[in-house]
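Input record, target 12 of the design panel.
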């Protein structure tokens, strides 16, 4: 089964972001890690990144049409993009929000997620392992749905 893993703005430049917050991973290493973790859960991973809200919304529409499960790190869009929230609401298969950092332990503007209310669950604060934990949770969700 294919899982779409979507990443929002600035995540492709992970190596240039605050290492105290995001750790040592660069985006290609994160992608390799997620692909490997996906394989362990029996998933084929299609991981994408965009700095552009419209592109991410297009990918969410595609996932809704194909009933593809989604793991999404909306990055800064998490905190204010009602259009990404509305697109997430249209998804037909499970959807999990992930964050590398724990936004609740950071600046106040990061304490609000406009996406959290329309996903199955959120995993944050475990670096690259947030994605791995999300894949484990996705496997459990899908197995329960198909039982
Ligand atoms: C992030 C947290 C967001 O607040 C931030 O804007 C990001 C990354 C994370 O993965 O920790 O770009 O989503």
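The sequence produced for target 12 reads:
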């Amino acid at each position: 089964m294919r899982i779409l893993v979507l990443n929002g703005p600035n995540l492709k430049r992970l190596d240039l972001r605050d290492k105290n917050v995001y750790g040592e991973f660069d985006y290609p290493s994160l992608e390799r890690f997620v692909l490997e973790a996906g394989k362990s859960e029996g998933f084929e991973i299609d991981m994408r990144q965009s700095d552009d809200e419209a592109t991410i919304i297009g990918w969410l529409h595609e996932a809704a049409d194909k009933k593809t499960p989604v793991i999404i790190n909306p990055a800064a869009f998490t905190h204010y993009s009602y259009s990404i929230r509305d697109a997430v609401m249209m998804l037909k298969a499970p959807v999990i929000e992930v964050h590398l950092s724990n936004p609740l332990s950071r600046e106040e503007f990061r304490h609000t997620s406009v996406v959290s209310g329309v996903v199955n669950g959120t995993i944050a604060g475990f670096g690259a392992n947030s994605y791995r934990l999300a894949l484990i949770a996705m496997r459990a969700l899908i197995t329960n749905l198909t039982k």
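The mean pLDDT is 96.
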